[in-house]
């Protein structure tokens, strides 16, 4: 049986219950450009 490595990237956590849509949009933009290869900083989300 082959074992798979489980990797959890360090990403920004939303600080309130209202920003989830913005986080989803940003994650999808980064993912669609070849994967989540870049970290998402608060300034990217909030600027």
Please report which band the strand proportion falls in: under 5%, 5-15%, 15-25%, 25-35%, 35-45% or over 45%. under 5%
Distance between the termini: 46 Å
Say what oligomer this is. Answer: single chain
Instruction: Describe the global form.
Output: elongated
Question: Secondary-structure element order, as H and E?
Answer: HH
Low-confidence stretches: none
**Mean pLDDT reading:** 72
**Which class do the helix and strand fractions yield?**
mainly alpha
- Main beta-sheet annotation: none
List the helices and strands and how they pair.
Layout: H1 20-32, H2 42-46
Properties at a glance:
47 residues, mainly alpha, 2 helices, 0% strand
Question: What's the gist of this structure?
Answer:
With 47 residues, the chain is mainly α. The chain has a domain at 18-47.
What this model shows, in words?
The chain has a domain at 18-47. The chain is built from two helices and no strands. The protein is 38% helix and 0% strand. It has 47 residues and is mainly α.
């Amino acid at each position: 049986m082959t074992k798979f490595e489980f990797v959890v990237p360090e990403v920004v956590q939303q600080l309130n219950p209202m920003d989830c849509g913005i986080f989803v949009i940003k994650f999808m933009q980064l993912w669609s450009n070849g994967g989540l290869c870049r970290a998402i900083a608060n300034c990217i989300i909030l600027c």
